[in-house]
Write a structure and sequence with these properties.
The structure holds 2 protein chains of 2 kinds.
Chain A: H1 2-27, H2 30-51, H3 57-75, H4 80-87, H5 102-105, H6 108-116, H7 123-134, H8 139-145, H9 150-167, H10 177-198, H11 204-220, H12 226-238, H13 264-275, H14 282-295, H15 304-317, H16 321-335, H17 337-347, H18 357-369, H19 373-385, H20 390-404
Helix pairs in contact in A: 1-2, 1-3, 1-6, 2-3, 6-7, 7-9, 7-10, 8-9, 10-11, 10-12, 11-12, 12-13, 12-14, 13-14, 14-15, 15-16, 16-17, 16-18, 17-18, 18-19, 19-20
Chain B: E1 2-8, H1 23-32, E2 36-41, E3 49-54, E4 57-62, E5 72-79, H2 83-91, H3 94-98, E6 100-105
Antiparallel strand pairs in B: 1-5, 1-6, 2-5, 3-4
Classes of the chains: A mainly alpha, B alpha+beta.
Amino acid sequence: MTGRLDRLEEVAADAYGRIVATLIRVTGDWTLAEDCAQEALAQAVQRWPQEGTPDNPGGWLMTVARNRAIDALRRATVERRKLAELAALTPDGTGPGDRGKEEEVVDDRLRLVFTCCHPALALESRVALTLRTVCAVPTADLARAFLVTESAMTRRLTRAKTKIADAGIPYRVPSGPALDERLSGVLAVLYLLFTQGYNADGDPAFADEAIRLARLLRRLMPGRREVPALLALFLLQHSRRAARRDAEGRLVPLERQDRTRWDRAAIAEGLAALADADQDGPYGLQARVAACHATAPTASATDWAEIARCYDALSRLRSTPVVELNRAVAHGYAHGPQAGLALLALAREGGALDDHPLALAAEADLTARSGDHARAADLFRRAAAVAHSDPERRALLDRAAEHSL
Amino acid sequence: MKYMMFVCSDAEPDTDRSDWPDIDVWVAENDARGRRVRGAVLAPESAATTVRVRAGELILSDGPFAETKEVIVGFDLLECADLDEAIEVARTHPMARAGRLELRPFAEFEQ
């Protein structure tokens, strides 16, 4: 019984986005598309346990959703063209006229992702709409993750869908030079989504969704080498998820993690994606850093010189306070704590890292390794005082205690 | 779709003066492609008069309807396939660099 429902969940995760994407293309009605896809899933939950799982579960769901859309549109007596096009949809979501038409060959889900991530929508709306429409994340879960009420989240989603219709945002994957710009916007939304899931107090399911979407994009846009770079970054970071917390829920720093608990399958998939990726772009460089950690047999065997080189390149490409901070840490391990402290002082010059918990923690760590334990303990306590989450705070106070002995 | 493109001033124009587009080239190209229906430069806001009627009484005031640093200095009425095309038209307008442009679709009413 549960086995069957697990199978249903697996099929649903893959089918939902495809159904919604196709029905939006044909009907132009986002709400109708989502309602029909959900109705199809609800029917599957009811009927599959009794009637048995159909041979082609995804096709079954598409057919049920399509019929539901036809009924709804009949009742609303809308244009005959949409009805005819719906009636002609096959279970894989294509229509008889689709073969050979360049525009139609594009997977509907890709269109849906690009539309949800359109830069004319507010960034917070892009993330929420992608999760809701492509990944079928319930509105209540989105509201919890983004710290707003459910009705506020519903309004945000409705406003975004209304703007798509009213402003004439096309349901299309752009071509030519516009694709570069827009793809980097899509990847930025996925990155934000992943971070939301990977943060200490985030919802880990969002990280899974980001990985699923990155895999989908990679499959649908095989020529774009920045996509496997992003996928590799996600997988290599995510491979550590089981080792990032101890039994009490405290964050465990990388160098103390039990490496046997790292997800070897995720690491292997990540390394394979990286081999296929552009390794010198912003995501490729970050993925290379993650790969250095993932492949080091022990913390002390980490190739910090390579990590320092990656951060040097990232710093040239896109210098941000956080990149400069990580660069200082990497040089601290590769070339000694004094080299790290010197770069950290440089990174601080703009003032953006003032009272930054990670900057204080990094300074504390470098100071401890240079031998000044009293000062290190004080810096760990200052970092704990400004930490963003309880797990981080507890981890920093533990470090302070170690150096107070 | 029809878009009203409001051409506005901006307190912080682009400091990069390279490849500055030419307004005559922009108008000629978009007129030829049928994407610009018409457009005009407006007289300065000192020439504006705001009109209201309240309880049957005409109330006139000197100046624009809203006092802001950024003001509308002109408009273009665009006819484009979708927002992406309208954005392409807008990004090549010199005032996208010197000021800012607002794209407002015409409201569509179902019969």
